[in-house]
Each structure stands twice: as C-alpha cells, then as structure tokens.
Structure to design on (1495 residues):
C-alpha cells in the first residue's frame, strides 16, 4: 500500500513536473503525397499527437480545410484519431508543379514540416504484393503512384504503351524528404531492359528517365532502393513531361517578366516562354515545364533576385572576344559542349570590392562551377572551386583596369542543361541575419494570448556596422515586437515577439523577419544554418522553409516567475526628478535560473526609465528608475513588462503602476 | 706464357707440349657427344663472339661455343671445347675466357670433336693505365658480391653503420659512404689490402655478413686496385653503359640427360655497350638468378645448368640494366609417345606444342559430370540444379558442352560472379566508399559485366572517371586509393600486371622499373583531387590543370612517362589520365590484353600462364609465351570481348582435360597437361554447401536470394565462415590477398562448424524434406550426390550409404545427416576438379 502510494506520488510528480517533455505533433507521411492544381484533393496526414485544437499550414498558396465529422447539433467534432488528420487541400489552378511543406500546430507544439507535392498527375496508391513483374500493379499513363519500398522486395508497375510513344518516368523521393535512394528500370514487353537510371544528374538520389517505345505492349517499371532499405516512400510519376533540369536563364529579376526556356538532358527543350516573376517571389521560385500539347509537367526552380539579367550571347564566343558586363548583374550562361569555358570582361577601379556568386546545382543544373578572375594579361587573381551550395568569390581590384570573369565546368562537362548563373555585385557593406546556430535554439514556438517568445538572432556584419531594425512580417494583424532596435556593431539580439491578445489555442502562424539598416541595406532572417545543424541529414534547406518561424498557440504555462511589488503607486518628486519602483522577483520554479527581460511602456511625456537588477536570492529585485523633467503634476500610469522563457515556453507578465507626480 | 728468358726452340717445344696436353686433355675431358646424352653428333661449331677486341689490360672476353646437330639442335660446348692461342704473348684462353697479354693480334682455335673454329683477337692498350671505374668497376664489384643487397648494406638503414644504395642505384650516396664517411676509414690507398672494405668481406676483420668475397673473385682485384689508385671517381667524360646484351638470346632448348652434362649446360656471355661505342665483357661482374631453380641453376660466372625439364628465365643484372634469357629444358621420357590428341582451337595447338616439346602427355577429357560441375563453378560460381545436371547428363548431343558454355555466359549469375572478382581488384568495401557507395559501385560493375562491356572501355571508364562517386560510381576507384602513390601502384598492378612498389624508393631490384619510371607514371595521376560532397558517402573526384611530380631523391620534376613509349607531351590543361588510358587500351599495348587474358586464364585454371597473374616481369616468364601472346592477340582482335575469350578457353580441350594425371604428366604443374584441382573459393564453398543442404545463408539486410558469390563487399555482411576460408578484406589490389592455403580452422569448420552443423540440422533442409515426403533412402542419397558432385553415387558409395542408414533404423534423419556430412567433407566436393 505504501509502495503504491509512493508510486502514485511519483507519477503525479512526473505528470505535473514542468520538466516533462511536451507532446509535440509529428507528421510521418501524407496519403496521397500530392494534390492536383485547380482541384480539391482529400489528403490524410499520418503522424502522432494530432490533437485538437490544431491548425495546418502549407507553404503552397492553398486553401486547407480540416475535415471534421459533425455532431448531432451539426458542429464539427474534434479529430478523433491523434494519428491521422483528414484535410481538403485546394491548390490554385495556376500553381506550378512543385514541392512544399505542410505543418501542423497544436497547443502542444509545432510539427516538423512534411514535404508535400503539388502535382498535375493524379495519384494512386501502391497495392500490396506488386513484387514481381508478373504481379506488377497496372497503372494508367499519366499517373503518379505513391509507394513505399519494401527493402529486398522490389516494386513493379505495368502500363500499356504504343510504338512510338514517349514515356517519361520520375521517382520523387529525396525531394519528398524520403531516405529512399531509388533505382529505376523500364522493361519492354519482351522482358528486355530498355532503360535504367540510378542518380539523375543534379537530382541527387532521385531518378528520372524517358524512353520511346518501339513496340506496342505492356511495359514494366521496377523501383527499388539501391541499398535494399525498406520503408522509403516515393512518388513514381509516369507521364509525358520533359526531363528538364533547369530554366534558361537560371533566374530573373523580381517584379519583371523574363523569357525562360527549359533545357534537359534527354535533348527535348521547350520554346521560350515569358513568365512574370512577382515582387514577392522567393529566392528560389518553382516553375513548371511542359512540352507543347503535354499533359504533365516537370518541376524546375529558378533564381529570383533584384539583379538585372544578362544572357551569354549565342553562339558561344571565345574567351578572347568576351562580352562586357558591369556589376551589379546576374550573368546567365551555359556550357554548351564539353570543355566549354565562358568569359566576361568588366572594368574596375582600384580597391573596388566585388562579390561573385556562382549558382548551378541548387537550381538543377548538373554543372560544378569553377570561377576565376583574371587580369588583362590572363594571370589568375582569384579562383573559387565548385561546391554546394552557392560559393562566393570575394575580390578587390588591385588597380584600375579591365578584368575578366571566367567560368568553366569543373569536370569539363557540357551540353543541354549545363546552365549557370553568376551573380556579380559590388561587395557593399551588408549584413546577414540568422537564428543563433546552436542546437538548443528553438525555431518553432508555442505561445499563448498575452504571452511572448524570443528569437535569438545572430548578426553577421560584412562591412555594415550601423543600427538595424528588426521587422516582423505576419499574415495577420496583432503581432508586435519589442527590442527590435539592434545597436550599431551588435552581433546578437534578442527579439521579443508578442502575439495578438485575441489569439486562440490551436492556431498556427508562419512568421518571417527582416532587418533594415541605413541606406537601404537589408536582409531576411534565415534559419537554414540552424536547421542543418539540427538535422544534418538535410542536404539543403528549401526556400519555402528557410526563414519561416512557425508559432502555435497553446495554454499558458505554469508561472515560473513573478514580479510582486508591495504597492502599485510610485510617487515622483519633481524636485528630485526621479523615483524608483521596486519589483521583487519571485522565482516560482526553483529551476528557473535566468533573469527575465524587463522593460517599461506608457511613461508620460518627458519621462524615461532605466531598469536594473539588484540583490540575490530572496532579495532579488528589479529597480525601475523613472527620471524626467517638466512632468505634468498629477496622476499618470505606466506599465512594466517582464519576459522570461523556461523549458521552451515564454511568458510575459505586466505590472500596472500609478505614477503620481508632485 | 710470359717471356721468361727461354730459348726460342725450347719455347716452341713447351708450346707444342702444352698444346698436345690441352688437346689430349680436351679429348680426355671431353665426353663423346652422342653417347648417352640423347644428342646427335654435331655437324658444326660456332663461337661467339666471332672477333675479340681487348683495349685494356682489365678487359677480357667470355667465349661461348655452340655446337649444332644435323636436326638443327644447338647446344653449348663452351666447357667441353679446347682453346689454343696462336700467340700466347698476345692473348690466352683460361676457363673459356680470352685474357690479354700484350698488344698485337692472334687467332684462337676452338676445337670441339672433329670441328673447329678460329676467331681473331686484337689486343691494344696493354701498356696504358687502366684505372678502375668507380661506377662500372668498384660499384659493380660491390653489387656482384651482394654487399649492397637489400638484406645487407643496401637496406634503408644499412648494416653495422655502413650504408650503400641498393644495388648502386644512387652513386652519389655511395661516393659519400665509401670515400668520405667516417673520415674515409673504409679505404686505405697506401695499403689497399688492409682496407676495411676488403678485410671485412674476406672475414679478415669481424663481419656480421660473414665471408662474402675471396681473393680469387674478380671483384676483389677491382676493389683493391680502385683503392690503390686513390679511390678515384669517374671523370664526367667517362663512358657510361647504355645497355647490356646477353648471348645466347632466349629460345634455346637444352636437353637433359642422366648420363652426361653435355646439353644441359649453357654458358652466358654478358656484354655491356657504352655510349662511346665500346663494348666490354662483364660476364664475371653480372649478377645472375634463375626464375625456377628446380628447373635451372646459374652460377656466379653465368653458367646455367638444367636440373629438370621446364622453362626458366635467367635474369642477368649489371648495374641498373636487366635482361632475361629464357631457356627451355627438355629430357627424354622413356616410353613417351605423343598421342596426337585433337585440338579444339589454337589454345590446344599451342598447349600441346609445349607439352610435346617437354614430353608431357595431356590427360584425357574429363567426364561429363566433372565438366558440368567445373564449368558452372568457373563461370557463374555456383553448382547446377538437379534438373540442370540430369538434363545435361542425359543429353547425347555432341555439342552439349559448347551449348552449356553459351548458356552460362548469358546467365545473370555470370555478371554477379565476375563482379565479385573485380570487386576484389577494385577494393570495393563499405569502409572505403561508404554503404551507398558500395551498392552503387557494385551495381555499376554488375551492369558492366552483364552488358559485356569491352575491357578497354571498362578500363578507360575506371581510369578517367570524374565527378560524384554516387552519380558516377566508377570514380570510386580514386576513393579507394589513398594518394598518388597508391593510385599508380594499383593501376600498375591491376592493368599492367606490374608490382611497382619497390620502385617508389629505389630502382626495382628484379625488374626494369626505375624510380624515375615510377614517378614518371605517377605524374599521370598526380592531379587527381578528392573532396567531400553534400550527400553522405559522396565524394567528388576531379583533376586540376596544374601540379607536377617531383622525384623525391633527385628533386627532378618528372614528365609523364609510359613504358615503351617513354616521356610523353600532353597539353597543359588536359586530363593526363586520358592520355594514359589511350596508351593503355591500344591494341598494340604489350601489357593490356596480356594481363587480362592471363587473369582470365588464371581464374579458369587456378594458375596463370604468368603466375602470380599480376606479377609480370622478365624474371617471372610465362610458362607458354606463344599461348599468352595468342590469347592476347585474340582478345584484342575481338575488341577486348571478355566473354569471347572465356568462351574460347572453356571450349578448348585443355580446359576440359581431366584432373587425373597420367604417367607422363603427373609432375607437371605449370604447362596445363591436366586440370589442377583446387579448393573451392570461400564464397563458392559456402554457396555449394547451401545448395547441397538446400538451406540458404542470409547475409545481413541483403536480399534473401543473394549468394555469397554475389556479395557486393566482404564488410556488407560479416561472415566468419567466409573469412576462415580466405575471403579477402580487399585492402590491397593483389590477387594474393585471397587466401588459398588450407588451415586447421577450415578443417574444424567442415567437421563441426556452426554453418555445416546448422544446415545439417535445419528442419527444412534437402534430405529432411525428401524424407518427410516419403522418399526412399536410395533416392535421397542419389539426390545428395547429384547436388554435390553432379553424378550418381557409385555402387560402393551407394551401398555404404544405405548400410549406414540401415544401421540407424530409429533415426534415419541422423543417419542422413551423417551421409550428407560425409559428402560435404569429400575432396570431390571441396575441390574444383
């Protein structure tokens, strides 16, 4: 009996301990893995802790409706199964085939994004036991199959085709966040292999092939994991899409129209198509490539920046007759044949600083870039080898004169699809913002009405030392920031974010932040480095995810600190011109060791306040010293706020103070 | 004879007596040719050289006398002939060597039996100083006596504080050591015979190396005189040796006889050619070794003596020059009569030609069951199914063996099995290239063999691969090599059959490879760079456009160098590997086709025509040069089609010969007169055991139907059985890493190891399934024999098995376990035969 009671006490202690791990929602997969554009698709999310109240966010410009059954009064019932969640996803008709993310937020936290696809091919689910050519699952042309690899058992699909018909097949796995490393084979009606692919150029582990059928009949597709691992999810797309890797040019300026064409490694290309890039387009914007009269598309990314485009003139000219460029510019070129080397001339003044960024593989080009700057005599002054991701070459002109930018493919490869983009700019003073790169730094938050949370921001200054103002961009009104002014030279900042007062449990919001300096210098807050630190298996952080801070709304946490003034009146002596208000600090949870951030708002005109922390242990307190001249006599009021975070939750408290000026 | 003051008539008498004595002595000492030697009487005699010119008192000339018979057989009569000088004041002959006595001209009459030959001798410069050359005299002497061998003072740290360069490959070092080191205490020009350099090898002073020289050795006189002359170095204008020539050239056949030495000996003459046009006899200073001392031994004076029939290469080294002479030794075999077996193709013709020459008789054809088992194991690594065995044995078609060969070459297991072999050579391991890397590398290899990619394309693909090692798996070759030295050594061993390792630090002791050659070849691969990439297990392989190799000893920048072709010019920014691959894969390349042809041969026969198969060198000659050349030519002409070559070999009668020797080939292990049994490889054995017992082995997370002979790498699924039976760890490219020695561990595994035991006890093994199906004992025994050795049991075997089963009426299962165990432990099962 005594032992049972003790056990009960222990369990109770565990249940109420603030150190208990919160039940954060998780997402494993979606069925189907994609939704069609211009249609509403019913999608079931599979995961865990998908408990009401909850919300779903999508990186797509989609409408998401959570499907709930109705009770007898016609009201929606809460989601009954914490392991699944049914949605209706309505994608815009003009959205390109692309990959994005779905996130679920509950009052307990925010899930990791589940990679999801916008696909113009309808989805079917893999059937069980399709593990031999004889038992291949029949699928129609123009289909995408959502499947799971079964390790040593290969998956087979059969489709009928006519002689002369072109079949394009693609396995989307790594791009969906799957660990699958697919191998794809196409087998003709006679059982002979007609095509095989492991890694498609610039697609990483994913595979893609196309073949023209030479005879009528049933063709079989075989999908397996090269390492015979099981559980890897994939989406097998079968259609008439072009096997294109990149756009050409590889990017364009924001807010302008650029004529793009798509080039790919099977030789088929599309006609140039003018496409407008919106002002709000992210740095990597998806476009869809489709053959004339085609019914399915390939997803392609293009770079978007503020730089004007220049296109390498064609046919290719020799380095001796290089075309002239001037920074800032984005140079878009191609290695048209193996061994191709492109050069561009520019002028520079002594000590002028430049930065050259080479972009290729992150946008689907298989090229590895080797960039050089040479002087007029051809001597190499600077060189940067190929790397993932973008590698920048910073260079200062030693003298006034003409110079040459040179770029070549590291392995002397060339041909269709071998495109590159060189963003050539003056290396002006600038800065970059990122969440603090520490695996304990949160990148998602749970807050509550009247709550708060803080972002630990790191500032990397590259020549810019001035002040920076941090700005929040939220899809709804009511979010506020505090401590947004970053003083000159500061390399760190703690930005407080206060949610709207009417925020409700179960809501989920995606916020972005920017920093503005003087003279138009600005930067977006990035989370890429932090995410890669936390998830080293991520090859790269996609543009739709970088910089997005998800905030879920939950219940207020148990108070872990309090400010307990003995009185709420502060008498200001106009002669002394100051008054001190004492706020004893009560640490309600003994594990809470850091100090809250305290600030003052609402002081009358002419007054200002400083806050200092004094004392220790039972005598810990904040002293708010109000100073001022010419204050109007009488009664005023101001507020003292305090923010603290503990165990992943932030909270804010407020003390109203009456100020009596005598 | 010197002029010692005797009168002229007296001198003539003495000369005549001497001549008579010599003639008689030669007659007395000369064994009558033809008596008991198996050699017909000579019809002519020839002497090399035909003219002797001696320009210094230090020079001499070794003569080689060759007798020819009516059937054009040529044999050495050097030490059986007599020699008479027309003017001993000018020149004399001692031990078949012409020695100068004074300026002038003379004739030497060489008499052998009834035949004689006269050669002229011209002697000059006898009164002029002839200082001993430092390089060609002193260092040559030290090399001759072995002082600078790797085990002695030529080791990297020397011996006893005295360090010489290995075989004098670094004369600058030797200069310092001999003349300047230790205040020059090793030499004493005032009392040269008291020099430590001489006292020690004579054991007149304590010498850890023991007695290494006598005063009679030519090296002693050279060193003594060199010291006496003040240890002089060679002037810059001194002539340098540019090549050596050995007489007789390769190809001579020596006949061995029990009764006589005639015909079994061959004196060699070694001539050094200098850059001033002069030629000197260095026979007494050259170093000799035999590639097979059981076949032939060679003395320090270059006299080769046959011991047994076969072929041997006599390697002759003089300073950095190496030449080999290939001699064939035959002997009469009483009762031998060539059976004139039919030849299925050129392979048989060439093998039989050699066998007939050496008087070996090829064995008869192997039986059908032996053939089937053998060809399955050699081609696809696994045993045939029962159905395949029974169908084949029942087939009466005369071409059934050819048809089986054709079918096997098209089986998917062919690619998997040969990928195992090349996985060893390419060092394909998870440790080296990562898990996904090894799967992709292996997949690439499988597809190459499945598509029968021509070998030249395969080699080119490997050697010039660049880019991501995951997207272009062939590039993993450069991931498995640690640095440029590892790369060049691996390339040389795999594609040139040359073990270059020694030449990294010094000139190769047994081959023509010099240290310069090593670094010259390294310059093709020096610019290869490796960098890690984004995906796990991924590397990028690329080449830079600059970077040169520096010879570490000389500091010289090395130009790209190729065997035979020499230094090559390559465009500054070109990928030099492509130039190497172009040269390597030319049809005319003397190495490329031969290496792979030999490798394939070695795989099928258990022994290469050159053996070890990746150790091509002059001192390791092919056992049948004509055969190897014919295979290589065929391979190249068929566009390096491996299946074609394999098919040709498998269809030969030589391949299909029985492993049972006959009276006239039982001691042959080199010339393929019969098939040599060998233990199944580790993977073959495990698969065979699984096949017989019907219980598969599971290898980690790999597919259930993957066999041991199809594993991507040994570290994908560690298996103790495979390791014990010699599965290599793939740490080197050497074929020798795959162990083939028997050991106690293997015996224990077979007797009572967990693999065999587990499969015998498995509830669903072959004989249990048959037993549970109600099959009679005889059927079960026959099935086990068919599965294991592709034949029905003999009457005795069947009787013994049934008797054993009958002795355990209450436990037939256990009895069948015993029978199966016994079959698995027979040589017939364990060996490929």
């Amino acid at each position: 009996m005594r032992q049972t009671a003790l056990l009960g006490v222990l369990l109770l202690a565990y249940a109420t301990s603030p150190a208990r791990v919160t039940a954060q929602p998780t997402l494993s997969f979606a069925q189907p893995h994609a939704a069609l554009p211009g249609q509403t698709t019913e999608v079931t999310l599979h995961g865990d802790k998908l408990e009401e109240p909850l919300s779903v966010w999508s990186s797509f410009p989609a409408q998401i409706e959570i499907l709930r059954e109705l009770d007898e009064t016609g009201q929606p019932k809460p989601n009954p199964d914490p392991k699944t969640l049914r949605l209706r996803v309505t994608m815009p008709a003009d959205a390109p085939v692309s990959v994005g993310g779905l996130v679920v937020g509950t009052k307990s936290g925010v899930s990791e994004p589940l990679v999801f696809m916008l696909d113009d091919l309808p989805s079917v689910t893999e059937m069980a036991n399709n593990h031999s050519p004889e038992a291949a699952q029949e699928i129609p042309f123009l289909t995408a199959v959502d499947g799971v690899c079964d390790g040593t058992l290969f998956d087979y699909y059969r489709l009928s085709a006519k002689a002369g018909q072109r079949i394009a097949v693609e396995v989307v796995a790594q791009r969906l966040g799957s660990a699958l490393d697919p191998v794809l084979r196409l087998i003709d009606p006679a059982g002979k292999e007609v095509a095989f692919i492991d890694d498609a150029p610039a697609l990483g582990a994913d595979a893609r092939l196309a073949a023209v059928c030479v005879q009528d009949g049933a063709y079989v597709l075989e999908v397996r994991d090269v390492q015979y691992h099981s559980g890897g999810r994939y989406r097998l797309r079968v259609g008439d899409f072009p096997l294109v890797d990149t756009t050409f040019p590889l990017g364009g300026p924001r807010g302008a129209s650029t004529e793009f064409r798509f080039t790919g490694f099977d030789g088929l290309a599309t006609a140039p198509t003018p496409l407008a890039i919106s002002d709000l387009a992210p740095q990597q914007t998806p476009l869809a490539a489709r053959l004339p009269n085609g019914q399915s598309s390939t997803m392609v990314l293009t770079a978007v920046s503020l730089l004007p485009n220049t296109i390498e003139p064609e046919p290719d000219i020799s380095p001796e007759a290089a075309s002239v460029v001037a920074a800032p510019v984005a140079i878009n070129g191609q290695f048209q044949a193996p061994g191709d080397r492109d050069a561009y001339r520019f002028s520079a003044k002594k000590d002028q600083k430049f930065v050259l960024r080479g972009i290729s593989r992150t946008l689907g080009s298989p090229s590895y870039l080797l960039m050089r700057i040479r002087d007029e005599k051809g001597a190499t002054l600077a060189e940067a080898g190929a790397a993932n991701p973008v590698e920048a070459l910073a260079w200062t002109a030693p003298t006034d004169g003409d110079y040459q930018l040179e770029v070549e493919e590291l392995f002397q490869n060339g041909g269709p699809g071998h495109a590159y983009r060189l963003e050539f700019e003056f290396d002006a003073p600038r800065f970059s913002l990122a969440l603090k790169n520490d695996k304990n730094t949160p990148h998602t938050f749970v807050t509550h009405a009247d709550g708060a949370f803080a972002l630990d921001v790191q500032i990397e200054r590259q020549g810019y030392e001035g002040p920076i103002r941090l700005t929040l961009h939220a899809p709804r009104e009511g979010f506020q920031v505090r401590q947004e002014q970053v003083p000159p030279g500061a390399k760190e900042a703690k930005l407080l974010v206060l949610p709207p007062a009417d925020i409700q449990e179960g809501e989920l919001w995606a916020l972005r932040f920017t920093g503005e300096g003087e003279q138009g210098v600005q930067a977006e807050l990035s989370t890429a480095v932090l995410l890669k630190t936390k998830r080293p298996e991520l090859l790269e952080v996609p543009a739709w995810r970088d910089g997005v801070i998800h905030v879920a709304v939950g219940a207020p946490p148990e108070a872990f600190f309090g400010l307990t003034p003995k009185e709420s009146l502060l008498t200001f002596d106009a002669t002394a011109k100051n008054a001190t208000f004492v706020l004893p600090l009560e640490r309600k949870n003994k594990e809470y060791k850091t100090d809250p951030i305290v600030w003052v708002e609402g002081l009358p005109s002419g007054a200002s306040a400083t806050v200092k922390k004094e004392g220790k242990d039972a005598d810990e307190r904040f002293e708010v010293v109000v100073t001022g001249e010419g204050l109007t006599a009488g009664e005023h009021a101001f507020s003292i706020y305090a923010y603290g975070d503990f165990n992943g939750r932030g909270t804010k408290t407020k003390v109203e103070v009456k100020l009596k000026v005598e | 004879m010197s002029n010692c003051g005797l009168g002229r008539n007296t001198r003539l008498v003495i000369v005549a007596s001497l001549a008579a004595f010599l003639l008689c002595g030669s007659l007395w000492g000369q064994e009558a040719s033809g008596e008991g030697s198996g050699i017909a009487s000579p019809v002519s005699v020839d002497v090399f050289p035909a003219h002797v010119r001696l320009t210094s008192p230090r020079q001499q000339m070794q003569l080689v006398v060759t007798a020819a018979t009516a059937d054009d057989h040529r044999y050495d009569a050097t030490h059986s002939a007599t020699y008479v000088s027309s003017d001993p004041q000018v020149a004399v002959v001692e031990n078949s060597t012409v020695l100068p006595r004074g300026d002038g001209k003379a004739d030497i009459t060489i008499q052998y039996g009834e035949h004689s030959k006269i050669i002229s001798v011209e002697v000059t410069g006898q009164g002029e100083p002839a200082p001993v050359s430092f390089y060609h005299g002193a260092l040559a002497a030290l090399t001759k006596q072995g002082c600078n061998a790797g085990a002695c003072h030529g080791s990297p740290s020397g011996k006893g504080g005295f360090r010489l360069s290995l075989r004098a490959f670094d004369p600058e070092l030797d200069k310092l050591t001999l003349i300047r080191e230790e205040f020059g205490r090793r030499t004493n020009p005032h009392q040269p015979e008291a020099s430590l350099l001489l006292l020690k090898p004579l054991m007149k002073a304590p010498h850890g190396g023991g007695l290494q020289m006598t005063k009679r050795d030519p090296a002693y006189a050279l060193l003594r005189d060199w010291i006496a002359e003040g240890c002089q170095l060679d002037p810059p204008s001194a002539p340098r040796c540019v090549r050596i020539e050995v007489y007789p050239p390769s190809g001579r056949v020596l006949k061995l006889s029990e009764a006589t030495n005639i015909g079994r000996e061959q004196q060699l003459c070694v001539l050094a050619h200098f850059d001033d046009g002069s030629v000197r006899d260095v026979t007494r200073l050259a170093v000799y070794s035999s590639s097979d001392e059981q076949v032939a031994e060679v003395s320090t004076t270059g006299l080769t003596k046959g011991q047994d029939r076969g072929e041997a290469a006599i390697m002759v080294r003089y300073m950095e020059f190496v030449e080999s002479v290939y001699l064939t030794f035959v002997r009469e075999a009483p009762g031998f009569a060539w059976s004139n077996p039919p030849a299925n193709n050129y392979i048989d013709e060439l093998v039989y030609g050699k066998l007939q020459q050496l008087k070996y008789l090829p064995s008869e054809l192997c039986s059908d069951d032996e053939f089937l088992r053998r060809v399955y194991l050699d081609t696809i690594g696994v045993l045939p199914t029962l159905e395949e065995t029974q169908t084949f044995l029942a087939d009466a078609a005369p071409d059934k063996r050819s048809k089986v060969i054709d079918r096997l070459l098209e089986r998917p297991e062919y690619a998997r099995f040969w990928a195992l072999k090349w996985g060893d050579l390419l060092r394909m391991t998870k440790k080296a290239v990562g898990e996904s890397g090894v799967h992709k590398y292996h997949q690439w290899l499988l597809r190459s063999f499945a598509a029968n990619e021509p070998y030249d394309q395969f080699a080119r693909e490997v050697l010039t691969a660049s880019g991501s090692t995951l997207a272009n798996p062939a590039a993993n070759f450069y991931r498995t090599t640690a640095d440029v030295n590892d790369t060049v050594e691996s390339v040389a061993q795999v594609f040139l059959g040359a073990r270059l390792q020694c030449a990294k630090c010094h000139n190769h002791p047994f081959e023509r490879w010099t240290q310069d050659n090593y670094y010259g070849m390294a310059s093709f691969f020096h610019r290869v760079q490796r960098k890690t990439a984004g995906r796990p297990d991924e590397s990028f392989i690329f080449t830079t456009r600059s970077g040169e190799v520096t010879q570490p000893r000389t500091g010289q920048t090395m130009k790209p160098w190729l065997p035979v072709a020499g230094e090559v010019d390559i465009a500054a920014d070109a990928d030099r590997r492509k130039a190497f691959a172009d040269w390597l894969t030319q049809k005319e390349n003397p190495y490329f086709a031969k290496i792979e042809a030999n490798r394939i041969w070695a795989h099928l026969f258990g022994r290469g025509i050159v053996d070890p198969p990746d150790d091509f060198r002059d001192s390791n000659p092919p056992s049948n040069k004509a055969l190897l050349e014919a295979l290589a030519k065929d391979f190249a002409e068929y566009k390096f089609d491996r299946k074609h070559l394999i098919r040709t070999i498998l269809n030969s009668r030589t391949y299909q010969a029985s492993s049972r020797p006959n009276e006239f080939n039982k001691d042959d292990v080199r010339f393929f007169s019969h098939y040599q049994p060998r233990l199944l490889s580790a993977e073959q054995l495990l698969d065979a055991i699984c096949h017989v017992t019907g219980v598969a082995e599971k290898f980690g997370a790999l597919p259930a139907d993957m066999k041991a002979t199809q594993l991507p790498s040994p570290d994908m699924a560690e298996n103790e059985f495979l390791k014990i039976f010699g599965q290599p760890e793939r740490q080197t490219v050497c074929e020798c890493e795959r162990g083939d020695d028997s050991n106690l561990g293997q015996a224990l595994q077979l007797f009572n190891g967990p693999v065999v035991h587990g499969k015998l006890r498995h509830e669903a093994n072959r004989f249990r399934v048959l037993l549970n199906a109600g099959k009679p004992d005889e059927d079960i025994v026959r099935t086990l024999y068919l599965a294991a050795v592709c034949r029905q049991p003999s009457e005795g075997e069947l009787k013994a098995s049934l008797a054993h089963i009958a002795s355990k009426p209450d436990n037939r299962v256990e009895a069948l376990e015993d029978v199966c165990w016994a079959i698995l432990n027979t040589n017939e099962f364990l060996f490929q035969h």
Q: What stands out?
A: The CA atoms of residues 265 and 412 of chain A lie 16 Å apart.
